[in-house]
Structures are given as structure tokens and as C-alpha cells.
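Marked as duplicate of an earlier ticket. Keeping the data here for the record.
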Amino acid sequence: MDCRIAEEMVSKYINHTLPLNDLEDFLEHIENCSSCYDELATYFIVHKAMQQLDEQKEDSVLDFRKLLEEDIRKSRKYIRRKKFHRAVAAVAVCALIAVLVVFLIFVILEIKEGIRF
């Protein structure tokens, strides 16, 4: 991923609307590109500050960098969870296919046995 593409994804990241594959690529890029990370941090800080002003909470957190790091950790956890769910689903589908194949073989053998008189 290049910086131009990463910069286009910043607002989608902040709004949590990046597709899983894009999210993973985006996080990898900002981990290795300080310029894009700084841009993300700037937009994230502005977004969170505006959000806190709108909500007017008494217990507002002012450490926006810490909030960003927490958000990135949550995003990475989300990616791991989604990948795990996909892997479990793939294993389940493979197991179902294997059961169906065994069942069909059993049915075919029963039909062949039934044809013989």
C-alpha cells in the first residue's frame, strides 16, 4: 500500500468502515510509515475532540494518542477474531463436505447392493 491510498483510508478507519482486508493493510502501512501514522493521529485527535465536545462528558480522556493506540489494538483484535471465525467456518464447511461425501458413498454402495438379487 502506498501513502496516497492510506491517506484516502484515514476517515474510513476513524469511522470503522474499512473492509477487513483493507483494515489489515492500512494498519500494517501506518505501523511502518510515520508520516501516515501522524496524519491518522491528527485526524483521529480532531475527531475524538469534536466527539467529546458534542457529548460534553465530565470524564473525558484527553490523552488522544493513548486513545488512538487503544483503537488500533481493538482493530487488530477485530482482525484476529474475524480471521478465526473465517477459519472455523472453512473447517466446518470442509467437515460438512467430507460427511456428505461419505454419506453419498454409503448410499451408492447400498444402492449397488440393493440392485443385486
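See parent ticket for discussion. The chain has four helices and no strands.
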